[in-house]
Amino acid sequence: MRLVRTLALAAVVLVLCALAGGWYLYRDLAGSIGTSHALGDNAPKSVGGDTNILLMGLDSRKDQNGDDLPPEVLDKLHAGSSDIGGYNTNTLILLHVPGDGSKAKAFSVPRDDLVDIPGHGQDKIKKAYGLEKARTEDKLAAQGVTDKGKLETAGREAGRRAEIETVRAFLGVPIDHFAEVNLAGFYHLADALDGVTVCLKKPVKDKYSGADFPAGKSTLNGRQSLAFVRQRHGLDGGDLDRTRRQQAFLASATQKLDSVGTFTDPVRLLNLLNVAKQDLVTDKGWDLMSFIKQARNVSGGNVAFTTLPIERFAKHRGEDVNIVDPVKIKQIVAEQTNPVHSTPPSAPEGSPAPSKAPPAPAPPVIDGGGIPCVD
After folding, report:
1. b/e per residue, 325-335, with b = 16+ CB within 10 A?
2. Hey, which residues does 281 pair with through a beta bridge?
3. CA 31, CA 25: separation in Å to the nearest integer?
4. Which of 42, 245, 365, 374 is 20 to 30 A from 108 in CA distance terms?
5. The domain 2-343+355-374 is classified under which CATH number: 3.55.50.30, 3.40.630.190, 1.10.10.10, 3.40.720.10?
6. Burial class (CB in 10 A: 0-12, 13-18, 19+), 91
7. Residue 322 exposure: Cα atoms within 13 Å on the Cβ side
8. What b/e string do you get for 135-159 counting C-beta neighbours within 10 Å, with b at 16 or more?
9. Where do Pro residues bias regions lie (predicted)?
10. pTM of the entire structure?
């Protein structure tokens, strides 16, 4: 499900391209979407005009206020009850937008990578948000805070900070901006796009996600889209195959944003803006108008995707995890975001040679046309 919310995040970023000539719409959008101070004023920044955006998708069946999503919405999402999911960031993608207008790059971080989480030791990278949110709320409750809204707001801000810090340390690059959305945001956006075309190599039917699609191309509505990117049962590579599906879906969706005239269709654009207001949270300091100048090379599907590698599978506190090589991860990201000036980190002396990694899914690379077929 990691791309479920990420589609909403990336698409809303792309929609900003259409607002360059509409100051009123931009002002209305900027004043209405949720904002956060979690990034921090003193956070490291990219240089040379580049921008790194962390796209975080919460596996949460709750709205921005911490209230349960309506039962009818949960039923459409085929996502179970509001007690499922917690506050794990099951979608983590770093979107690198070069300042020179060259191809954007998207790095998918597998949700079960075992990493260092500040203040919590080693755990799955997806848990940083929820662990810190819970700890912060417990501390405030012990101090006598009982207001649900205050606890939710403080907990989410702490969770965002923890997730950003964890990903930044893991990837070794600055994070200039972030965007966050939950399941409902994806559903609303997918319907606002009037369907997204995907392609499967073979038919699938999965009772857990609700996926039921024929081989070949299909145009999916919001409910079907969620099922498509959530399915992992019945896929040979499990989560890794699901990551490739999500990447293919995102590539197709961003391409459609540009190809069907979304940026010039007032009704479609208004629908997307309403989704942004309802479901999106971004960092307070993001100057959206300045980013518009960079964002056009993300539309039309012009994005190269990379799934960051894992070394092997293991158990940690009774849970399945991905063992990763932090040095290798940093080197891959550095080489692809700044191949001339970056100095990849070196492994400590005496470090063991990495074990053979499980096969990673081949990423879809869409250059203005074509729909990749996936498993």
Report:
1. bbbbbbbbbbe
2. 34, 180
3. 10
4. 42
5. 3.40.630.190
6. buried
7. 23
8. bbbeebeeeeeeeeeebbebbbbbb
9. 355-364
10. 0.78
